[in-house]
Amino acid sequence: xxxxxxxxxxxxxxxxxxxxxxxxxxxxxxxxxxxxxxxxxxxxxxxxxxxxxxxxxxxxxxxxxxxxxxxxxxxxxxxxxxxxxxxxxxxxxxxxxxxxxxxxxxxxxxxxxxxxxxxxxxxxxxxxxxxxxxxxxxxxxxxxxxxxxxxxxxxxxxxxxxxxxxxxxxxxxxxxxxxxxxxxxxxxxxxxxxxxxxxxxxxxxxxxxxxxxxxxxxxxxxxxxxxxxxxxxxxxxxxxxxxxxxxxxxxxxxxxxxxxxxxx
Length: 264
Hints:
35% of the residues lie in helices and 17% in strands. It is an alpha/beta fold. The protein has one domain: Rossmann fold (3-Layer(aba) Sandwich). Strands 1-10-9-6-2-3-5 form a 7-stranded parallel sheet, with helices on both faces. Strands 4-8-7 form a 3-stranded antiparallel sheet. Strand 9 (199-203), helix 7 (209-217) and strand 10 form a beta-alpha-beta unit. Helix 1 packs across helix 2 (46-57). The chain is globular. The two termini are 20 Å apart.
């Protein structure tokens, strides 16, 4: 596991955006195969998406040969709802870049057969060639996507019930009304994410400090689903100074020293 520590979320977001852009360009330089990208929602990736948009508009990057799959969607929320993840992704990314509409994949939270929708999503990821890079965030309790604590680390795309804590955290997007947050969601599984050739997780702010401590220094456990990244051969956590506040001093020094050595 690699941990990239920046002074603040703005610097971390820029690092992530340029890392993704570099990976897209590197693959384009050696093959005509599309770059398969996993994407997340929430407030954390917004600055990263803004920089990707800037690069596309400046002609520095193209999404014309990118296929994307989003990690989750609320169950039963209309796609037109301003807080659906369909709306979020178009508002903060898709409406501003050159990715073809047919290359964009988001789970259908209103599918008549949710289980079939989840199975078809997994099949579509495999058919696309699997993820080259998966960009994710982490919840305050250490969950990735909507894989709440005690989700199996071998889980695949499925329907899940959201915990009260997650719904309370997300109520800020629903006018502070907990009861407006859907009780269920469709989400990729932990194994779906970890099956990516590279995983980049964003974690900013002091509220993520406990989750990072558990994920980085704790045992690999379904209690903190992000801890599954410990077993990944190319896992990266991009964080800021506030989010690493609970790491041991020697852990912090180790990750800073590794990055400094790599940049020599």
